[in-house]
Amino acid sequence: MKFAISYSTPFNGIDPDRLTAFAVHAENCGFEGLYLPDHIALYPGATYGGNELPPTLPYFDPLDSLSFVAASTRRILLGTGVLLLPYRHPVVLAKRLTTIDVLSGGRMRLLTVGLGFLPGEAQATGVDFATRGRRADEAIDVMRLLWSGGPEGVGYHGEFFDFDNLCSFPKPIGGSELPIHIGGSSRAAARRTGRCGDGYFAGGMLPEPERDIQWDLAKASAVEAGRDPAALEYTRWGTVDLTAEQIDASAARGVTRIVVGLPPGVPGQQLDKMSEFAERLGLVRQLQNQHS
Q1: Cα(229)–Cα(16) distance, rounded to whole angstroms?
Q2: What's the CA gap between 185 and 204, in Å, rounded?
Q3: Which end of the chain has the smaller Cβ count within 10 Å, N or C?
Q4: 3-state class (DSSP) for residue 125
């Protein structure tokens, strides 16, 4: 099992020193990756799960923040949980992601994308909320095409994006395409994972039987698309008080990565909780074994 950690600017604040200290401590504790959330804009009356979101919640741009974090760290992988893909142009996004990957030495490897759930956010970015799924599918195709394309250029002609003879350099470290994980809590997200994702980051408050259905659906969709279901990674949220028994139960369900969310608190308390979790599960020792 791999363990990553999430930093929530809405609840931890936007102090750059606190973000840096959090990331450095997570790296020293042996966490595989750091995830940051995403919202482009909120508005009065926006709701999630029946609860209203305070419009003053502060959200950093996750990609700018990950680039900032990369300058202070050396090993920890960089992730989004989740990046709202339909609201960003894939030609620009492909370049931004590659830039972070190159500057960080190949660590932009936990990109997770989702569709977003706020109609007002879609409207503000000029996107038809009803088409955001199809737009995301095309965006994934466009980014992978640009990453894999050579100096002769590539072309794409879709419903939302259209171009000829484009070149996008530099390439991600190693010349490979960046992994793209699909985030969500719906069967549509699970099917998208199977069709075109490198993994599924399951969200939402769902009963375990529904989660099992979605994971099975992701694997079945991969088979239908001629892809290897065994290559898919399965990421789930977890808490800092996870027990070994709970982790084993998750592994039995196919989970390969747990992203730990820390409760809000003062910086010192959060770092202590992080240390306690890492020591209890031997994360540094696991990391050393992986690289030995």
Answers
A1: 39
A2: 5
A3: C
A4: coil
Structure tokens at 20: 């840096």
Q: Give how far Cα 250 sits from Cα of 98, 151, 211, 256, Å.
A: 32, 45, 11, 8
Q: Above pLDDT 70, what percent of the chain?
A: 98
**Rg over CA atoms, the chain:** 19
CA distance 166 to 164: 6
220: enclosing H helix or E strand:
helix 208-224
For 187-241, write each residue's pLDDT tens digit: 999 999 999 999 999 998 899 999 999 999 999 999 999 999 999 999 999 999 9
Residue 96 CA to chain centroid, in angstroms?
A: 15
Q: How far apart are CA 247 and CA 274, in angstroms?
A: 17
Q: Are strands 77-80 and 51-52 parallel, antiparallel or unpaired?
A: unpaired
What is the Cα–Cα distance from 113 to 183, expressed in whole angstroms? Answer: 6
The amino acid that residue 256 corresponds to is T
Element (H, E) at 201: strand 199-202
Instruction: Give me 249's structure tokens.
Output: 């139960």
Residues 79-100, mean pLDDT to the nearest whole number: 98
Confidence (pLDDT) at 291? 61
Is 2-291 a CATH 3.30.420.10 domain?
no
Quick check: 23 pLDDT over 80? Answer: yes
Contact 198, 179 (CB under 8 A): yes
What are the residue ranges spanned by the domains of the chain?
2-291
What b-and-e string marks burial along 198-232, b requiring 16 or more CB atoms within 10 Å of the CB?
Answer: bbbbbbeeeeeeebeebbebbbebbeeeebebeeb
Give counts: helices (H), strands (E), the chain: 11, 13
